[in-house]
Design brief:
Arc Repressor Mutant, subunit A, single chain
Length: about 110
């Protein structure tokens, strides 16, 4: 990392890798949502504004592969090729998982 450069790409890479490691183990440990601060920002994911708690609850209902692809792609902004390499699946499969997760999101938020 360049000491004069923007630290965001470096920090993003760390966050993505840690998230992947955590999610790839398919942990079912519940996070105490009541322990989260009240002033968390709203996220806009796939065109929907939602609270972190709402997104967390919804994502837990997805199958593990869809959940992982959705979080990496739609929330963290990881490219399909990178997700494909991480997960050891084809890019078309990444896009299919993302599509199914988006359909579930639309259904969950009353869009379809």
């Amino acid at each position: 990392m360049d000491p004069e450069g923007d630290p965001f790409p470096f920090l993003r890479t760390i966050a993505v890798r840690r998230t992947y490691s955590f999610l790839s183990r398919d942990r079912r440990a519940e996070v105490a949502l009541d322990d989260l601060p009240e002033d968390l920002p709203q996220l806009t994911v796939v065109g929907h504004a939602c609270e972190v708690k709402t997104l967390y609850r919804w994502v837990q209902a997805l199958p593990p592969a869809q959940r992982l692809v959705f979080l990496l792609r739609e929330v963290l902004g990881v490219q399909d090729a990178e997700i494909s390499k991480m997960m050891g699946i084809r890019e078309v499969t990444v896009r299919r998982h993302a599509s199914l997760a988006r359909q579930a999101l639309e259904k969950g938020f009353g869009g379809g």
